[in-house]
Amino acid sequence: MKIDNYNFAGKKAIVRVDFNVPLDENGNVTDDTRIRGALPTLKKILADGGSLIIMSHMGKPKGKVNPKLSLGQIKDVVAQALGAPVEFAPDCANAADQAAALKPGQVLLLENLRFYPEEEGKPVGIDKADPAYEEAKKAMKVAQKDFAKKLASYADVYVNDAFGTAHRKHASTAVIADYFEPDNKMLGYLMEKEVQAVDNILSNIKRPFTAIMGGSKVSTKIGIIENLMDKVDNLILCGGMTYTFAKAMGGNIGTSICENDKLDLALDIMKKAKEKGVNLVLGTDCVAADAFSNDANTQICSAMDIPEGWEGMDAGPESRKAFADAILPAKTILWNGPAGVFEFEKFTDGSRAIADAIVIATKNGAFSLVGGGDSVACVNKFGLADEVSYVSTGGGALLEAIEGKILPGIAAVK
Ligand code: AMP
Predict the structure, then answer these.
(1) Is 396 a catalytic site residue?
(2) How far apart are CA 28 and CA 65, in angstroms?
(3) How many A from CA of 293 to the centre of ligand 1?
(4) Which of 118, 270, 403, 413 could form a disulfide with 185 if both were Cys (CB 3.0 to 4.6 A apart)?
(5) Is residue 313 lining ligand 1, measured as CB closer than 6 Å?
(6) What sign does the dihedral 92-159-37-384 (CA atoms) show?
């Protein structure tokens, strides 16, 4: 079912959203992007004359109640965003009466789902090496189904609008869908947009296609790098990965971040790029620092020849130009992971050069998708989020989708 075609009048809708928002030490929401992201879906349900049961996780309470991660803290922010009063259900597993009492236009927010081990479906308090673990795991899977069934019993219709957790087979993201007929389960608007954006990158490619992969490690990005190798024209690998490649090619990298067990993998990636005719762009120079700090002394040097005691913290001017040259003519662009330690002001230039080039290419008609927590933080920091085509809310989910994996949260409602 498509959300646009569904009339929620008189229905109770249980909606999985991603309200895993950052809070300050007093429990105030410091960034409400994720709440705003879910509004089109939530408002459509209320405007149709439906009632809402909103559920989400927050943080990693690992199956235990943790007041610091209670969704009760964000009740008023959600009410304000929706323009409707919100009631809070402190016990997800015992909210039947509150759900039953909901009238059209009314909203119930459930407590953090991950206070319940059944949500993730992993046994807690037992080690994987314990002989009883397998039994505990089986029992937990049964408990997970019961928990999902309980949640489902509160509503007539299920909507999944939490792309950030779509790669997880949790009670609220996937298992719950088994308890609704095909006509009564669907993706929300945010999910639909995410799916469309991934489709633009995977099957609707306009060329040239430039992907920029940054961040700290090759190992966490290898799946996506291998998948992209068959699709892209230009592949920019930057950030901390640069130094694993530089070392693999025989460079001196000082104290730069490096995965010594991935040197062969780096050479293999270079070989594959050559075989497939992909233009692999690696940083050739860098901004090196004598400490991992914003107050460090810096110098520009070759990424292959970093002095002892210094580490590569950002892309140098020559690399930035090479990155921009590969981005500016592109018609499809994917960016995941910063080009340097952008959290420190001194080392933002590489990521900024990438963001600026993406903005220009987008103005020239490219479809640009920025995703994965840190690159999103980058475009937000630079105030450029509105100048790229799409900023994904998914980190791991986006990477898995682009790797070509089927996401359980999407498969469950289709
Ligand atoms: P990831 O989570 O793998 O996307 O990595 C993001 C992190 O990579 C950010 O926190 C950056 O500070 C870090 N990063 C980027 N470039 C470097 C570098 N040259 N050295 C160390 N960390 C880096």
Answers:
(1) yes
(2) 19
(3) 13
(4) 413
(5) yes
(6) positive
Contact 107, 79 (CB under 8 A): yes
- Condensed to tens digits (0 to 9), the pLDDT of residues 179-231 reads 999 999 999 999 999 999 999 998 889 999 999 999 999 998 998 999 999 99
Tokens matching residue 342: 């952008």
Adjacency order of strands within the sheet including 311-315: 298-302, 285-289, 311-315
Nearest to 214 by CA among 379, 54, 65, 55: 379
Measure the CA angle with vertex 331, ends 326 and 333; round to 5°.
Answer: 65
Percentage helix, strand, coil for the chain under 3-state DSSP, each rounded to 5: 45, 15, 40
Helices and strands per DSSP (H, E), number in the chain:
14, 17
Q: What pLDDT shows up at residue 235?
A: 98
Name the pTM for this structure.
0.87
How far apart are the CA of 339 and the centre of ligand 1, in A?
A: 7
- Which range is least confidently modeled, 86-90, 200-204, 315-319, 370-374? 370-374
* Residue whose tokens read 């799916």: 195
CB 46 within 8 A of CB 10: no
Could you tell me whether strands 234-237 and 279-282 are parallel, antiparallel, or unpaired per DSSP bridges?
parallel
